[in-house]
């Protein structure tokens, strides 16, 4: 295996997060569309989306730079009719995961597993149909539950439930923790709400309160140096037996989260970006030739910022603004 590329801060890039589309059948109130803002297009495929050949060519090139993992995202990636083809053609050396809202998993999860998908994250923000509908603008609650069961049955293990924690969902945290503790094959990721990307600071809650509560109820706590995350094991009959695992994804005030980040993102249009909340370094891969892909990948890795709070800084009024150090940087690099 080729040694991974490292940025100027010593972080090796070993994973990529590839958006296959910005189309989605949900309209979640917190959506930031991979940091690009509310740019979701119509439900019909657009000419701007990378086709299967483009996606596979990109993965083949970065495999040569030591990339070991790929996560497919959207929008809703399962709106791509060629998803199974993309999975089948993804380099065998890569671990393959996907983030989805789960509505298309029933009847399709086994085929995805057979095509090469290893793991899946399913967005599930509430355990009540009405509140789920209020957050997602969708009436697909029962379908999502069915999709989660289908993913577990297909062996997409573990199935991680993603729950964004903000004022609309905070009341369901306790229920969701119990839910994963009682259902084998499930894990829970509680994702810190990012007001600077959604423009609704009034929806924010103190994520440390969730950490404190989990510390009190957990049977054991495991610290992961990667991203400075804690894993909480709840409802275990004995260490490592039964129960469920809960992890909090909290990047906003967590320098260590970014200090250990080894992932570069790709938009559905074929632009590379070095950070979720940074869009001034979007770099086109041109006509997606192997040489252009390699050049863009090397440039984006070299141009990464040290950590989340370096790029967006909070004012005394609580708003977020671009660090003056980065003002005047071109929006899209060619």
Keywords:
TIM Barrel, single chain, 13-stranded mixed sheet, alpha/beta, 334 residues
Protein described:
- The chain is α/β, with parallel strands linked by helices.
- It has a single domain, classed as TIM Barrel, CATH 3.20.20.70.
- The chain contains 11 helices and 15 strands.
- The strands form 2 sheets. It has a 13-stranded mixed sheet with strand order 7-8-9-6-5-4-3-2-1-10-11-12-15, with helices on one face.
- Strand 2, helix 2 and strand 3 form a beta-alpha-beta unit.
- Helix 1 runs parallel beside helix 2, helix 1 crosses helix 10 and helix 2 packs parallel to helix 3.
- The two termini are 30 Å apart.
Which helices and strands, and how do they pair?
Elements: E1 15-19, H1 52-63, E2 69-73, H2 83-89, E3 95-100, H3 109-115, E4 119-123, H4 129-136, H5 141-153, E5 159-165, H6 173-182, E6 186-192, H7 195-198, H8 207-217, E7 220-224, E8 229-234, E9 244-249, H9 255-259, E10 263-266, E11 271-273, E12 282-284, H10 290-302, H11 308-311, E13 312-314, E14 320-322, E15 332-333
Parallel strand pairs: 1-2, 1-10, 2-3, 3-4, 4-5, 5-6, 6-9, 12-15
Antiparallel strand pairs: 7-8, 8-9, 10-11, 11-12, 13-14
